[in-house]
Write a structure and sequence with these properties.
The complex is a heterodimer of chains A (112) and B (114). By secondary structure, chain A is an all-beta fold. Helix content of chain A is 0%, strand content 59%. Chain A is built from no helices and 11 strands. In chain A, the strands form 2 sheets. In chain A, strands 2, 4, 5, 9, 10 and 11 form a 6-stranded mixed β-sheet that branches. In chain A, strands 1-3-8-7-6 form a 5-stranded antiparallel β-sheet, with no helix packed on it. Chain A is globular. With 114 residues, chain B is mostly beta strands. Chain B is 0% helix and 50% strand. Chain B is built from no helices and 11 strands. In chain B, strands 2, 4, 5, 6, 9, 10 and 11 form a 7-stranded mixed β-sheet that branches. Chain B is globular, with a radius of gyration of 13 Å. The N and C termini of chain B lie far apart (38 Å). The chains are: A mainly beta (112), B mainly beta (114). Chains A and B meet through strand 4, strand 5, strand 9 and strand 10 of A and strand 5, strand 9 and strand 10 of B.
């Protein structure tokens, strides 16, 4: 059974700092991994999707890497801003499966 | 391009009642998935519909049921509501199976069971 873990559960940083969020998964046979952002009480916004054959994806100040063999992904946020404050969730899908398996998320607070 | 929409936004029910939640998928998408997100947890997969047929189900009891319509909109029905059903219910749409494409989520329906 696939399990996804995110560390840390919460993170507070000053504005302008670069930061890394971690995601690990127990079964390396994944098709892809997605990072999502969730604002309080709201739905999920897809940030980046990495296919299993890829090593990283970049979008603006965000960079996500994937090491499938070790079951790990990181989300790097450069020059953090207060508007980046949210919960960040990672999720994986596996071959033959129709579902996303999520971690519990990392709650990020960026202080002005 | 219209995004994923859900209705209602909030709902309060009492234990034992039945509820129907609705989701309109993003234009051009033929796959809809439903997730339950309890407070402080990641979303849990309930089931998925592809071209009006159920295409997989998570570990939820039969009192959770669904439908997908020819226009690819979808309903989630929950019978005999229990207190633990209180959660944010999210639907997501995509244009292919989830393992090949990004899923786009709606804003969710907050269900409170008293």
């Amino acid at each position: 059974k696939q399990e996804v873990t995110q560390i840390p559960a919460a993170l507070s940083v000053p504005e302008g700092e670069n930061l890394v969020l971690n995601c690990s998964f127990t079964d390396s046979a994944i098709y892809n991994l997605q990072w999502f952002r969730q604002d309080p009480g709201k739905g999920l916004t897809s940030l980046l999707l990495i296919q299993s054959s890829q090593r990283e994806q970049t979008s603006g100040r965000l960079n996500a890497s994937l090491d499938k063999s070790s079951g790990r992904s990181t989300l790097y946020i450069a020059a953090s801003q207060p508007g980046d404050s949210a919960t960040y969730l990672c999720a994986v899908t596996q071959g033959g499966s129709e579902k996303l398996v999520f971690g519990k998320g990392t709650k990020l607070t960026v202080n002005p | 391009e219209t995004g994923v929409t859900q209705s209602p936004t909030h709902l309060i029910k009492t234990r034992g009642q039945q509820v129907t939640l609705r989701c309109s998928s993003q234009s051009g998408h033929n796959t809809v998935s439903w997730y339950q997100q309890a407070l402080g947890q990641g979303p849990q997969f309930i089931f998925q519909y592809y071209r009006e047929e159920e295409n997989g189900r998570g570990n939820f009891p039969p009192r959770f049921s669904g439908l997908q319509f020819p226009n690819y909109s979808s309903e989630l029905n929950v019978n005999a509501l229990e207190l633990d059903d209180s959660a944010l219910y999210l639907c997501a749409s995509s244009s292919a199976a989830p393992y090949t494409d990004t899923q786009y989520f709606g804003p969710g329906t907050r269900l409170t069971v008293l």
